[in-house]
Amino acid sequence: MPFEVRKVEIKSVTDASGLAELIDDGVFAADDVIAVIGKTEGNGGVNDYTRILADQAFRGVLLDKGSRSEDEVKEIPMAWSGGCDGVITPHATVFARVPDDQGVDTDEKRLSVGIAMSDVLLPEDIGRPAMVEKVAEGVKRAMAEAGITDVADVHYVQTKTPLLVLETIQDAHRRGETVYTEDTLYSMDISNGTTGLGIAYALGEIDRVPDPEEIGKNHDLFSSVASCSSGVELDRAQIVVVGNAPGARSRYRVGHGVMKDAIDQDGIWDAIRSAGIELPERPHHSDLDGRLVNVFLKCEADPRGEVRGRRQLPLDDSDVHHHRQIKGAVGGVTAATVGDTAVFVSVAALHQGPLGGGPVAAIVRAD
After folding, report:
1. Contact 36, 128 (CB under 8 A)
2. Count of beta carbons in the 10 Å neighbourhood of residue 47
3. Measured between alpha carbons, how far is 122 from 77 in angstroms, rounded to an integer?
4. Active site residue 160
5. Nearest-CA neighbor of 294 among 249, 344, 257?
6. CB 259 within 8 A of CB 268
7. Number of helices (H) and strands (E), helices first, in the chain?
8. Residue 7: what pLDDT?
9. Could you tell me the sign of the dihedral formed by the alpha carbons of 172, 177, 183, 189, in that order?
10. What is the model's pTM?
11. From 7, 109, 140, 160, active-site residue
């Protein structure tokens, strides 16, 4: 079946009216929604419950307007990234299957989506090779579901994984296990990074499961298509693989690029070109002609404390965490580049893109 991809604004913490309107207007059926990726307006930290509120609101609409059971709706991957610092607008990108007669006849590979849930990730798995292997296995299953056989056709892998909180740390200790870190906020970086390595291993971007001492340390190991988020609301990896597949017949294509640093606009344009939009040498957002659905980025404050030779201060700031500063900065760069503030910018990019930079994915209308 072809796929429909739409972006809706979230107008309040518990608003899912945009999803409801798409269903009511017949763009797709509630039962055909297979994944949601969104930004919520909380603090983006361990205790950001706006992710849970958005999750409940969107799943509630699917329950009210569809025929799937509550358990079935709970299985739909919804990756919520908290924190809309700077100019970022809360929003969600919805992926849905549509009837075959809504597809297009083309010989081009077009957008296809596959989803999977990993095996349960125990607290002691986070930051360790066991998590890499469990995520990699899930990515391969999601690729197969999407009908993608060539790893080069995978341009975006969005995941949501558990991080460590006091309760799960204590659970591991009671069972005689250790955890990678007892710093719950830092565990967000580690969960994301280890997941990124699992994606890289599944797609052949790295040729082995990293040694334990390399996880979080060897910055030469990374994925160029991974976008990994983590939170308190699950105990497995939710995996959404987005690529281009033969016979998909969707009206959309996806591509990817890499930002080399926090102000690398060329990395964003590379992703859009990769998705199939022809652009002039020095593009402007008006050249997009309304064809861009959304861009998805990962970013981090460069641990070397500089950007293009200029000193940077977020890592020395004791008042505002560097996650919020870099998210606001890259969100501003991205919004100015594409002419839209509803962009998906997520932090904690360990093992996702090069040091100080991050992957970029772009979904565009192909026709």
Report:
1. no
2. 11
3. 19
4. yes
5. 344
6. yes
7. 8, 14
8. 98
9. negative
10. 0.96
11. 160
Comparing CA positions, the residue from 276, 281, 280 lying closest to residue 252 is 276
Alpha helices in the chain (DSSP H): 17-24, 50-65, 70-74, 129-146, 166-174, 184-202, 265-274, 322-338
Q: Is a pLDDT exceeding 80 seen at residue 234?
A: yes
Beta strand 33-40 pairing with 78-82: parallel
SS3 state at 353: coil
Least confident of 17-26, 125-134, 157-166, 224-233: 224-233
- Please tell me whether residue 193 adopts helix, strand or coil conformation: helix
The enclosing H or E element of 367 equals: none
What tokens does 308 get? 């293009």
Report the C-alpha gap between 206 and 30 in whole angstroms.
Answer: 38
> Is residue 286 annotated as a catalytic residue, yes or no?
no
Per-residue pLDDT of 309-319, as tens digits, reads 999 999 999 99
What does the mean pLDDT of the chain come to? 97
- Of 118, 223, 229, 346, the active-site residue reads 229
Per residue in 103-138, pLDDT tens? 999 999 999 999 999 999 999 999 999 999 999 999
DSSP string of 22-72?
HHHTTSS-GGGEEEEEEEESS-SSTT-THHHHHHHHHHHHHHHHS---HHH
Q: What angle do CA 232, 85, 50 make, to 5 degrees?
A: 35
Contact in structure between 359 and 226 (CB atoms under 8 Å): yes
Q: Cβ of 117: how many Cβ atoms within 10 Å? A: 15
**What is the per-residue pLDDT across 176-211, written as a single tens digit (0 to 9) for each?**
999 999 999 999 999 999 999 999 999 999 999 999
Residues contacting 158, CB < 8 A, separation 6+: 35, 37, 79, 227, 228, 229, 239, 240, 242, 296
CA-wise closest residue to 229 among 94, 59, 58, 358: 358
